[in-house]
Amino acid sequence: MKDFLIAPSILSADFARLGEDTVKALQAGGDVVHFDVMDNHYVPNLTMGPNICQSLHKYLRDAGIDKPIDVHLMAMPVDSLIPQFAQAGATYITFHPEASLHVDRSLQLIKEHGCKAGLVFTPATPLSYLDYVMDKLDVILLMSVNPGFGGQSFIPSTLDKLRQVRQRIDASGYAIRLEIDGGVKVDNIGEIAAAGADMFVAGSAIFGQPDYRAVIDKMRSELAKATHA
Ligand code: DX5
Ligand code: ZN
C-alpha cells in the first residue's frame, strides 16, 4: 500500500487532558499530531500557541513517542511564529499564503529552522500560489472546510482540486506530501485518497468516537481498498 499518513487533529481532543488524549490517538495508530493554531484574527477562533506545543512535545518524548507534530498556522503575521514553533518541537509548519506578505520568505524561514514547510489552501484559495514555489515545499495542505472549526462537512469541490494538485506534484518530480484537512471520515477517506491525497487530518472523526483504534483501523482498510481499486 502507498505510504499514507493519518494525522489526528487534537483540536477535537479533550483539552483538559491534552497529553493523555494525544498519546491515546497515537497509540491507536495515528502517525502525526495535527496541531491547529488559531488567533481570532485570521480565523474566528482561538486555540493553542508555542508553549502548549512545547509541553506536548516533551510529554510525547517522555512517553517514548517519537511521532511528528504538524503545526497548521491559521494566524497572522506568520513569520514571528515560525521560530517559536520550530523551537517548540514542530516537524511540519504550514501556513496560509493570504496570511503572509512574502510567501517565499516565510517558506525559506521554515526551512532555515529545520522544519518541513507547507502552504495551505482554503476552499477558495487559487492554486496559482504554487506556481513559483514547488521547490520549497514538503507538503501542500488542501482544506476541505473553511478554517476555524472542527466538525464541519467536507466540501466536495475539493476532490477536483486534489486531482489538480496531484498532477502538479507528479509533474514537478518533487517528493511533496498532499495533505487534506476538514470533514475527513471513514466513509469518504477512500475517494479522497483516490483523488490523490496521501496525508489525512481527522479531528472529530477520531476524537468523537470512544474507540480511536477502531476508527483508524477502518480508515486504513478504506485506504487499502481505494488503492487496490
Ligand atoms: C479546521 C482545522 C482542522 C480541524 C478538522 O480549521 O484546520 O484541522 O480540526 O476537524 P474535522 O476533522 O473535525 O473536520
Ligand atoms: Zn488543521
TrEMBL record:
Database matches in InterPro entries: Aldolase_TIM, Ribul_P_3_epim, Ribul_P_3_epim-like, RibuloseP-bd_barrel
Instruction: Give the reaction(s) catalysed.
Output: D-ribulose 5-phosphate = D-xylulose 5-phosphate
| Principal EC category | isomerase
Pathway in which this enzyme or protein is active: Carbohydrate degradation
Residue ranges of the TM segments: none
GO terms for biological process? pentose catabolic process; pentose-phosphate shunt
Q: Where is the active site?
A: 36 (proton acceptor), 181 (proton donor)
Q: Name one GO molecular function term.
A: metal ion binding
Question: Is Metal-binding set as a keyword in this record?
Answer: yes
Q: Which Pfam families match?
A: Ribul_P_3_epim
What does the entry list as the binding residues for a divalent metal cation?
A: 34, 36, 72, 181
Q: Which UniProt keywords apply?
A: Carbohydrate metabolism, Cobalt, Isomerase, Manganese, Metal-binding, Zinc
State where substrate binds: 9, 72, 148-151, 181-183, 203-204
Query: Which Gene Ontology cellular component annotation is one that this UniProt entry carries?
Result: cytoplasm
Gene3D superfamilies, alphabetized: Aldolase class I (3.20.20.70)
Q: Can you quote the record's cofactor note?
A: Binds 1 divalent metal cation per subunit.
NCBIfam families for the chain: PRK05581.1-4 (NF004076), rpe (TIGR01163)
Q: What does this protein do?
A: Catalyzes the reversible epimerization of D-ribulose 5-phosphate to D-xylulose 5-phosphate.
PANTHER family reported for this sequence: RIBULOSE-5-PHOSPHATE-3-EPIMERASE
Q: What is this protein called?
A: Ribulose-phosphate 3-epimerase
Q: From which source organism is this entry?
A: Rouxiella aceris
Task: Give the gene name.
Answer: rpe
